[in-house]
Amino acid sequence: MPTSKTTTFILLAILSLASVVLALFVGSVSDADAAIIYQLRLPRVLAAFAVGGLLAMSGSLLQVLTRNPLAEPSVLGVSGGASVGALAVLMLGGAGTIWVAGGAWLGAITVMILLWILVGGFSVHPSRLLLAGVMVATGCGAITTLMIAFASNVAMPGMIHWLMGDLDSVMSLESVGAILGVWLSVLIIVWRLSPKIHILQLGTDKAMTLGIDVSYIQWVMVLLSALSAAAAVSIAGSIGFVGLLVPHILRALIVKQHGPDQRFLLPASALLGGAFLVLSDMFARTVIAPSQLPVGVITALIGVPSFLWILSRFRQWNS
Q1: Over 90: is that where the pLDDT of 76 sits?
Q2: Mean pLDDT confidence for 148-157
Q3: What string of DSSP letters covers 244-308?
Q4: Which of 15-24, 31-40, 287-296 has the highest mean pLDDT?
Q5: Is the pTM value of this prediction over 0.70?
Q6: Closest Cα to residue 59, out of 300, 228, 234?
Q7: Element (H, E) at 26
Q8: What's the CA gap between 17 and 13, in Å, rounded?
Q9: How many Cβ atoms are within 10 Å of 143's Cβ, its own excluded?
């Protein structure tokens, strides 16, 4: 007989598949035929699933790493750093997903290292890390504004549109295959490391006592968080709050019964995050059809009140 966690994981897998199928056949074009579904919607829906899963895994890793329930790629400035790196490539005339992704990853890892230096490690008080992250995110926002102000008239429209967070530029299955490859690679690594990450959340001293190489695991988590956020940003631009909401939704489902088991939470976030962004993007495409909204607007409208609610319950977080 399957356990509650197994049942929940199966239900998440079914939800993910159902969200993809639903998004394929629901859209701003009422008379959708096979060509529209295959050439336009399929790449966008698959990209949304991979991006959502990567952002959710990044947020889950950051929340365990920092022991802070408010940690999330955009809140801590990781997405902002990735945006600065990607926009720098676009501003300099760089083209191609590989160059933009490389710039995004360099910006994301730079922010993670900067936070590490500013607060003296990720094991400090959560409030201190959160404040440092907010300031870094604000600084990244200021830098992106300056970059847009000094950008050429040719590059500026694309940079502004990219910053809003959207998936309508995803047109080829080749680029989708790349982002799905990153999603699968991160998921496999996270799944293999999840037992050690589960022990690490109990405290660094206890983890060291049990033979865990704490420094190594922490740096792997840093690199995976930065890689996930950078890959998502390079494809879809700046999309916030997915990495904040999805881990909390999962905790609400299982923590009261089974505790914060990272062996379940981390892999499950890859599924629920994907389904969440697929449904958000479907809503963005249809709510004012035939016009479309950037999916980043939808996630922000959902995420801001949710963030305030989570902030009000900060002291009740159980992990």
Answers
A1: no
A2: 80
A3: HHHHHHHHHHHHHHH---HHHHHHHHHHHHHHHHHHHHHHHHHTTTTS---HHHHHHHHHHHHHH
A4: 15-24
A5: yes
A6: 228
A7: none
A8: 6
A9: 17
